UniProtKB/TrEMBL annotation:
It is a multi-pass membrane protein. Keywords: Cell membrane, Membrane, Transmembrane, Transmembrane helix. Residues 61-92 have a biased composition (Basic and acidic residues). Residues 39-92, 380-417 are annotated as: Disordered. NCBIfam families: yihY_not_rbn. This is Uncharacterized protein.
Amino acid sequence: MNDQVEMTRGPSWLKWWIGAIGGLLAGLLVSRWRNRSPRDSVTGLGATSVERTLTAPAHPAPDRDLPEPDANEDTKDAPDPEDPSKPDSPTDLKKRSVLFVLRKTAREFSTDQCTDLAAALTYYAVLSLFPALVVVVSLLGVFGQGQRTTEAVLQIVDDLGPASAVDTLRAPIQQLVESPSAGFALIVGIAGALWSASGYIGAFGRAMNRIYEVEEGRPVWKLRPIQLAVTLVGLVAVAVVAFMLAVSGPLAQAVGDAIGAGEVALTAWNIGRWPIVLIFVILAVAVLYYSSPNVKQPKFRWISIGAGVAILVWVLASVGFGFYVANFGSYNKTYGALAGVIVFLLWLWITNLALLFGAELDAELERGRQLQAGIHAERDLQLPPRDSRVALKNQAKEEQDVERGRALRESRGQDDG
C-alpha cells in the first residue's frame, strides 16, 4: 500500500457539474428577479408594510393578527404555508432579509449541532448502504447491466471522492453482482432491503424536524410508508443514474449500431446524459427535503436554493477532501489497512454535512419570507405540522410523569397506605 491514499485527477465532467449547478442557481435567481411582483418595482425598495416593518423600526407597521408564540407553543394554528402576504419565492427577499437569513443559517447550523447530526446520519448510512446496494444491483441485474454499472459507479466514486473509498466498496459490490441470485433477490429480498435501507431516511427526518423546530407527530403507520416510498424513489433514481453512466463508450456504440444511430446521436447522448443525471440527483434531494420533516411546507419545488447549494457544496467539499487526503493526509500510516474505511466514513460525514447545510438554508429562507410578511417567526418557524397526534400523546405522558414525580416528592417515597 502506498504511503498516501492516491487520488485520480479531476475529470472533465466534474467541471461540467460545478458549472451546471452554478448556472441553475444563477438562472433561478435571474428568473425570479425578472418575475418579481409590480409592487416591488414602484420605488425600487418596495412600498409594502412588510418593507416598512424591516426598514423603519421607529414607525413599525401593525403586526399580523397573530399572537406572539411561546417557545413551546404548538404551531398547528400557524398561517398557511402559501400565505399570500409572504414573498412569492425566497429569491424575492429584500437585502436586509437576505443578510439575516445568511447569518441565521450559520448560527442555526451550529445551534442544531449539525456536525453531530451528520455523524449520526453517517452511522445510519453505513447500516443502510448494503441493503440499498442489494436493491440497486438487483434492479440493474434484471437488465444485465450489473457488472458494467458497478464499474461506472466505482469510477464516479474514484473521480469524485477519496480513491480509497473504491477499495472499501469494490469487494462487497462485486460479490453482490456475481451472486447468481441477484435477480431472485429483487423479488424475494426487496422488501427487507428497503426496510433496512429506510433507516437512513428515518434518521434524516428526525434531523429535519430539529432544523424546522417541530416534534414528530405522525403515527408509525403513516410515517413508515412515507419513509419506504422515499427510499424507493431514491434507490430508483440511483439505479437510473448508474445505468445512464454505464451506457457509454463501447456499450453506447453497440447500442447505437443496434438501433441505427449515427455518430452525431452518440455524441449528443454522451453530452446530454449529464443534464439528465443532474436532474435526477436534484430531484432526489428535493424529495428528501420536502417529505422528511413533519411540517406542511410551501408548494413542492423540484429544485430549491438549499438543494442546489447542498449539491454544489458536496461536490466542492468532496474534491477538496480528496485533494487533502492525496497530498497531506497520512491515513495509511496511522490506520494501516483500515485507512480506506476511515476515509470513506469521513467522506460520508462530509456528504451529510452538505445535505444538512442545504436544509438549514431552506428553513431559514422560509423564516425570512415569514418575517418579511410580518409573521412572528423570530423564535419558531410558523409552519403547521402535518400531524401532531404522537407529539400530543408524548406530551400527555410527560405530564403524567411530572404528576407522579410530584406525588413521590410530596410523599417522601412513602406508600399511599
